[in-house]
Amino acid sequence: MPHPSAEARPPLNRDQVLVAAIALADKDGIGSLTMRKLGEELGVEAMSLYNHVANKIDLLDGMIDRVFGEIDLPGDEPDWQTAMRRRAVSARETMSHHPWAIGLMESRSTPGPVTLRHHDAVIGTLRKAGFSIAMATHAFSVLDSYIYGFAMQEASLSFRSAEDSAIATQMIMARFPADQYPHLTEMAVEHILKPGYDHSNEFLFGLNLILTGLEKTRHTL
Amino acid sequence: MPHPSAEARPPLNRDQVLVAAIALADKDGIGSLTMRKLGEELGVEAMSLYNHVANKIDLLDGMIDRVFGEIDLPGDEPDWQTAMRRRAVSARETMSHHPWAIGLMESRSTPGPVTLRHHDAVIGTLRKAGFSIAMATHAFSVLDSYIYGFAMQEASLSFRSAEDSAIATQMIMARFPADQYPHLTEMAVEHILKPGYDHSNEFLFGLNLILTGLEKTRHTL
DNA sequence: ACCTGAACACCGTTCAAGT
DNA sequence: ACCTGAACACCGTTCAAGT
């Protein structure tokens, strides 16, 4: 009897492995997600995991597809901008819960079914709003680039500023010696580091700018 | 005499290490960049590298800062949009040469001097064009999110489509079974996979949309 | 000052063996 | 059908030792 509940516990399945892997990556970062640690988390040796995932790439593919499932699909809102805004806000929220996923979501070479369904729903909303195929492609490209790019910047910012913003300020200022970077310093000191500033407001500014711009091209081409 | 040119060759320096590391990552991907392989490339044992970089994180920081140096700074163009467009196009071009760098450029916790100078120049151009500090922050955020997000998508696309687009088509279509993803299929078959389509055109569409949107807010706030 | 050999504590993955 | 132990070919990094 290796450990108490060894034969009491039913066998693992793929979904349990994926859920545990996501939880581990959320907690300790993707760098700490190793087959050995994941096995330990599940009360199993690392080698057992290969009964449920083909290899680590397959594990990551499965994790990403599961994360995509957390993003709201654009719904049946009458206004296409409202639908796109809700989906974009949800995507950003999801990625803020799983920052390790951001770089991976768009770079999997084999997107899963949930991912494909998500993209299909976004394109469908655009087409129903009257965008031509060419314009829908443009819209899809600019929206997704913006959403993922913003999430990437936000993840690195929250990583940079760590827990204490006062300490972060000290550290940042120490790296801006003697007005070598006057505009960056001005922006930091006079705006970003001021109490009222909230970086998350930047997201809606850019999103609305893009949606407004797209509305104007909706019936062209 | 370990190898022929051992005492003929002058000692390594940090820049040679960074240049070789970038070349290796360009050639084989970031996953193949190991201290041992990098040492081999330089005719040296892996342990010698620690005389020139503190550790692998420091190596990556140095590589990224050097890549930032390849991006054109926004110049003294009279039109701020022209300056921003040139810088954005250059950034995208640079990242297409160094796809491994994309996920890392915005996520380094200690940006180097070249990186800071780049950001300072971008903000300076916006401020000189009349953007308030708050509006320049908005503009900086939306532009950078878009540029990095687009580069990320482009890198994964070129990775996905591998060398032969016909094979890629087969593979993609095999994953769209029985009209489960009608809009995605339509976009692929009727537009993206057609001979005339060039994904790189998407970049300027989104960039111009954002620049036009920003121009309208240039004198607000 | 720069480089090396040996060692340590890790990785992902295979495979034969167990139940 | 699922899990394990032992093994293989790797990692980054430290450290004492060489020149």
TrEMBL record, chains A, B:
Residues 34-53 bind DNA. The keyword Transmembrane helix does not apply. Pfam families: TetR_C_1, TetR_N. PROSITE patterns: HTH_TETR_2 (PS50977). Residues 11-71 form the HTH tetR-type domain. Keywords: DNA-binding, Repressor, Transcription, Transcription regulation. SUPFAM superfamilies: Homeodomain-like (SSF46689), Tetracyclin repressor-like, C-terminal domain (SSF48498). This is TetR/AcrR family transcriptional regulator C-terminal domain-containing protein. The lineage of its organism: Bacteria, Bacillati, Actinomycetota, Actinomycetes, Streptosporangiales.
